[in-house]
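Q: Two folds, back to back.
A: First:
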Amino acid sequence: MRAPSKETITVITRDNIRTLRPHANASKNLSASTKPAPGLVIKSSELSQVKSDAVLRTEAEMRRRNLQEQEDREFTAAAAMKRKERMEQYDRERTANAALSELEQEARDRSQHLLAKAHAQLDEQEDDIKKLNELILYAKCVAIRDAQIEEKKMISTEKKMEQSRLDTLMEADRVNELKKLEEREKLRVEEQRKGASIIRKQIEERQEQQILEEERKDQETQFMLKAIRDRAEADQREKEAKVKAQRLLMQQVVKANTESLEHKRQQKLAEEDEDRKVMQYLLDKDRRQEEADREKEQKKIEREKEVARLRAVQEKFADKQAQQDALRAQRAHEAYEREWRRQQKEAAEKAGAQERELREERARQSLARERAVAAEAQSMRQEFYRSLQRQKEEELRLQAEAVVRHEKNRAYSREVQAQIKEKEALRLKDRQEFFKEGERLAALRDEKKKKVDRVKERKIEALRQIGVPDKYCKEIERQSFR
């Protein structure tokens, strides 16, 4: 018996898993094709055989030689079978007539065990048994896969529960933070209320002192208020002119962007959104600035009214300390005015710098996009020419291969025709042997089916013992092997 090859090839498909054992001759031929062939030494008898085979024979001689070789093989096989039957008969007679000793019995048991093991290994080489093994392996794999799926489901459920727990904790933290913010807001509002109450109390106290001097100082107060209004109107006109200039600039920017976007609408969709955001930001900023300026003007008027009232109170006492306080109040007011103008100037400069940076950044982005588009176009042209060259080379190669393939097909056609003529002569004899072989194969199929059924029952029982689900075992039982 030829020793089985130790090398195996595992083929895994969607339906089954197969293990293939390549022939030893194939591996030898493969290794021989990769190594330099050593010198060959043959016997004289083999040399004579080679010379005899090298002699050119006719077709009739070839058929006679094939028939003779077939008869020799059949005769040799029949003689070997007869010798085997005689030896088995001799062993049976010797075993039946002689009493076995303990050692002989042990040797016999060991021999029977090895023989049974050898038969089992031979059974495993049957195609049906291999197919059965593939089904069993598939059942094991599916059982393992089902267990893994269940484990993944359990892990996913645990992850969802953990995520839900974390979400609950995060929501609780968020609610606590909101409560803390509300408490801080309440404290701030309460402090503002207390401050407002103190201020109202101080105002009431001052109003009581100013009632007597209100009429005398009314004309001066009106004059100061008129000056303040004139100043506020001048500032407002300046702000309106500035806002108008900014809006005009914004309109020009919008117009330029609109024309550019109309020309390159497909390439600059992202810029549209960016420009809208910038314009909206600037408009919102101007609106907020106007509101802040109005609030500041209102506060300024209120402060100057307060200063006028304080001055009236101070003039009531007409002492040196009152004059000094009024002078300090006037200086503080002038310092506040200077600081307010400085802040307005810095805000305007900052807004102008931001606008310049935005314009420069858009110009850089536009230039970079144009360069990228040009580089991409150049790359696409080069790739097109390279692809065209490869296509031409591929067409030439395919034409050369077609010529070679045509010649090979013609040679193969001639060879096949010669083989057909040779096989036609052997077909008559094969047909006669076919009917005899059919009867023998029918008996072998019945015996093989019984053997496969026994092996299948044994393997299914082993699957049940290792815990494979019963639905997969029943699926294997329903399989039919023919």
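A: Second:
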Amino acid sequence: MLRVLANRTYRHLFLAQVIALIGTGLATVALGLLAYDLAGADAGAVLGTALAIKMIAYVGVAPVAAAFAERLPRRTMLVGLDLVRAAVAVLLPFVTEVWQVYVLIFALQSASAAFTPTFQATIPDVLPDEKDYTQALSLSRLAYDLESVVSPILAAALLTVIGFHSLFAGTVVGFLASAALVVSVLLPSPIPTERRGICDRTTRGLRIYLATPRLRGLLALNFAVAAASAMVIVNTVVLVQAQFGLGQSATALALAAFGGGSMIAALL
């Protein structure tokens, strides 16, 4: 699996993904603590709304971004989106009202929703061999799983010496480092494909997904998993700090335990 890291371009892109994921993970912990700081026991409602906004951004922006990814310079697009995410993360520690959280989350997640399909569309051009591409997908999945454990543990350690607002600085550093790594490589031009209209390309993935019975079943399975994950994201900070009276580090460790459980379940 690690053989694909010998490719310098992919290695830099993979490191950019890992660093950005860790930064995003720190922001997830910090956002939960920020919601509790602003709303107290009502933090679950705040986080639930923020999660709904995230999903709206992904459903609305990601297909459009995927359609435009074939036409726009990908390196410029990826770097620009990383800089947008870093700029939004800079503002999060200064939030004083709940509505400000919602606005910034929509901006941050819209940029992330555009970044993800653009990044994914770049990998097969960097690694045209099918075996290498499959290994790259496996590495990417591993990075997502490890982040769910590493980021909360890192956040718990940092919270022993800094306030939760400072965790957003780690998010900013993660996005800036990701942008720097993308700038450091030359990305190949997209492989020419059949020309389709923007509307057709925007909806094509969804149409294929819904037309394939196995993928429809996978959609239902993912929905069930997402429902359980949403409960953890929304309610952990309230349960740990309001119900059990524990501190911020305990919240981060609880999230790490959930991430570890997810990895164990995947292995079993």
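Q: And?
A: Residues 8-39 form the longest helix (32 residues).
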